[in-house]
Amino acid sequence: MKYLGVFLLALFLGGSLFISFRTTDGSGLNNGIEVKIASLLVWIIFCAIIFILYLVIYYFKNRK
Q: How far apart (Å, rounded) are the C-alpha atoms in residues 23 and 56?
């Protein structure tokens, strides 16, 4: 279970770096700072939901 946490952390950091350093989006438009911040906010909310689910599963799995 601890390796899943490391994987999720690596996925979060990799996704954050990808969003921060890309210069164009999927349609070919240039990303401004506002678009990057909005994309990072959506990514953080998505990862927070996944992390909360991970913590709930971890709690119930290790409960005695």
A: 36
